[in-house]
Amino acid sequence: MYIALDAMGGDYAPSSTVKGAIEFVKEYKVGVYLVGKKDILQKLLKKYKGENLPIEIVHADDVIQMHEPPSIAFRKKRKSSMHIAGKLVREGKAKAFVSAGNTGAAMAVAKFIIGASPGIERPAIGVAFPTKKGKPTVLIDAGANVDSRPRHLVYFAVMGHTYVKEILKSSKNPKVGILSVGEEEGKGNELVKDTYPLLKMTKLNFVGNAEGRDIFTGDFDVIVCDGFVGNVVLKTSESLGLVILDMLKQEIKKSIITKIGALLIYPAVKRFKKKADYAEHGGAPLLGTKGTCIITHGRADAKAIKNSLRVATEFEKTHFNEKLYDNINHLLPEELKEELS
Amino acid sequence: MYIALDAMGGDYAPSSTVKGAIEFVKEYKVGVYLVGKKDILQKLLKKYKGENLPIEIVHADDVIQMHEPPSIAFRKKRKSSMHIAGKLVREGKAKAFVSAGNTGAAMAVAKFIIGASPGIERPAIGVAFPTKKGKPTVLIDAGANVDSRPRHLVYFAVMGHTYVKEILKSSKNPKVGILSVGEEEGKGNELVKDTYPLLKMTKLNFVGNAEGRDIFTGDFDVIVCDGFVGNVVLKTSESLGLVILDMLKQEIKKSIITKIGALLIYPAVKRFKKKADYAEHGGAPLLGTKGTCIITHGRADAKAIKNSLRVATEFEKTHFNEKLYDNINHLLPEELKEELS
């Protein structure tokens, strides 16, 4: 088995990607296509002693930069490392696609070059948020689509269920909720009100509306929402975490005693940061694509790249897409499928 | 001038509301109608030495509980303290309405009993988030409406502008953004794409798309969004703040050294919490209603109630609604108003 890695994507690429790939291959005995500028990658592979391993360099002329407008970059840079990595999956040469590059462009590659898996209309990003209870809550869709329709949210729910049960393994019968503005049935916008009865018709463990505050309690295993809302929640949460630590720092700097205190609690802060950082856990999967697609944070270091490659391997070894297909068949009754089509 | 205070609303009511009202009246020389159960309020007023002040008790038979479904409570409990307080404003006896009770029911009272101010179709909640730069960013609408149309967001922008300029006074020419999933124009859902050109037509200082991460940077003074998204963001942020502190605590408890560190930084944490707690700053106004409506957090203590009454007074003394009306006339060109109608 080979995984196609966009070796040029990410703030610390290509050294992070080459190092991460080498560490991964040594530990997991799975091959990696390093896609990007051949001469640079060859030198790095030599430097980090990655020769004579199942790592193959596949040349790509172009690189999509982190801050390029994704839609333009996707259309204009057809010879980019992302494009070529995506094509390796489409052609069946690689089983999975991993990128820490420009998120929007990576999503476009996954959706338009690799494509949706059978039975799925819209792939969606599932992000596993850390919670108070220790086990994750998966928010899906965290930004692959906007203006989703009720039927899409039903499929997001099945994808989230399958992700929790088969990959995260944090629940055998995942509790599924729909993100809304109040607990009671009937609360919400049109999308929520129209999706609610459809989710009730499924054989999922659907427990009703979830609110913004429920994302971090651990009371839900899966929370479905439109990708616009999910993306805003994801970016708000990431940024708020940093702002809180930053504002605390500013208060701490005001006296020598609080400064000493900060030194003493530093190990706890470090452990906390590690738990809270979803990038650390191997990136977010774009669920419902033909191969496995893992989109990792731009800040990914070699360890995060290795983790993403590991997660991609788990998806493939678990036969995630087959399980997803089975779940669509088992969890959605015929009368619901007719209503959705 | 009198303010109608829902004396029975809030986790710590009625003692928090009676105490808060007494402290407020003594300091600001503005009268308060304490609306609620007469016998209870009379006793408390005596206990806290609030007699012989411009505080009048207005009896209300019923109380809407914090966790009742708002729509049902609003329809069935027409003699509740909230209803009666709202009526005092509608009848012109009070200038402003303040409640720390059931948020949904308070919003219904504001919208359906007090009503929208001239020129406004949908009142909206403006929440001032603390930011890294020290000055607030107002997110509007934070949950008064769902499924807003582009024209509503244009009015939210004018309300937010007026709130920042006249009440918060944190900017003379507030930077207005629209919440979206990417920085570039053209990114977003249908609502954002349709609203963007309308905001460009206004004379507001419209600077384009904002992302979830921009809420806490202080780069925007006003960020407009639909109330569904705004409410999810508000509840997510409140809860994440608490979860982060909680998770940090759990890590700190693991060793004696980090425990000592935590004791030393406690003063900094306390200062930070005070800065971050928007309830501390006097609740969130429902902008665009006929009188001033301040909806305060259920956790509001006497001090927060006093602050809410103070903020209500500022709105009235500033003649907020007149300024809002002027701004609608000045900031929205005729051709835009035609398009919006």
Task: Report what the structure shows.
The structure is a homodimer of 341-residue chains. The longest helix of chain A has 26 residues, at 227-252. Chain A has two domains: 2-120 and 288-323, Isopropylmalate Dehydrogenase; 122-278, Isopropylmalate Dehydrogenase (3-Layer(aba) Sandwich). Chain A has an eleven-stranded mixed beta sheet, with helices on both faces. Helix content of chain A is 49%, strand content 15%. The first copy, chain A, is globular, with a radius of gyration of 21 Å. Chain A is α/β, with parallel strands linked by helices. Chain A has twelve helices and eleven strands. Chains A and B meet through helix 8 and helix 9 of A and helix 8 and helix 9 of B.
What features would you highlight for this structure?
Isopropylmalate Dehydrogenase, alpha/beta, 12 helices, about 350 residues, eleven-stranded mixed β-sheet, homodimer, 2 domains, about 50% helix
What is the domain total for the residues of chain A? 2
Question: Which superfamily, in CATH terms, is the homologous superfamily of the largest domain in chain A?
Answer: Isopropylmalate Dehydrogenase
Number of strands of chain A: 11
Order of helices and strands of chain A: EHEHEHHEHEEHEHEEHHEEHHH
Query: Which pair of chains has the greatest number of interface residues, and how are they split between the two chains?
Result: A-B, 66 and 65 residues
Provide the low-confidence segments of chain A as ranges.
none
Shape of chain A: globular
CATH first level of the largest domain in chain A? Alpha Beta
Structural class of chain A: alpha/beta
